[in-house]
Write a structure and sequence with these properties.
Number of strands: 0
Radius of gyration: 17 Å
Strand content: under 5%
Distance between the termini: 11 Å
């Protein structure tokens, strides 16, 4: 039986993402003018920072609620990346003043459905070891 990786397996990645994301956001916000390229860099760093924040939470949820087959490391990173992309999307829409609770929920449901479909596809390729 394959086991879900623990948080220690992701610790170097978590530290790298947090330092790069939040450190980069600090430098970007305090030392640049919000022109085109720093604005796109802002969204990239938001994705990196919130992916780093979500990674230990996603690992904990997989440990607490195990599934068969156990997710690989790339699945856990992908699910954390969804959190970063979702956060950057909400920030981007809030700058344009088009975000609402309903629209945020629609995007959340859409991301969850895509992840469920990806997990179903991965499960269809899984074969138990004899």
């Amino acid at each position: 039986m394959q086991r879900t990786p623990n948080v220690r397996a992701f610790l170097p990645l978590i530290v790298l993402l947090l330092v790069l994301g939040w450190g980069g956001l600090f430098v970007l916000v305090n030392m640049t003018v919000p022109t085109l390229w720093p604005r796109w860099l802002f969204y990239f760093l938001v994705v990196v920072a919130f992916t780093g924040l979500a990674l230990p939470v996603v690992v904990f949820l997989h440990i607490r609620f195990p599934v068969e087959p156990a997710p690989e490391q790339k699945v856990i990173v992908r699910q954390s990346l969804w959190v970063g992309v979702y956060t950057a999307l909400l920030i981007w829409m809030s700058f344009g003043q088009v975000v609402s609770v309903g629209l945020a929920l629609i995007f959340l449901v859409g991301f969850v459905v895509v992840e469920i479909l990806l997990r179903l596809r991965e499960r269809s390729f899984w074969r138990p070891k004899s």
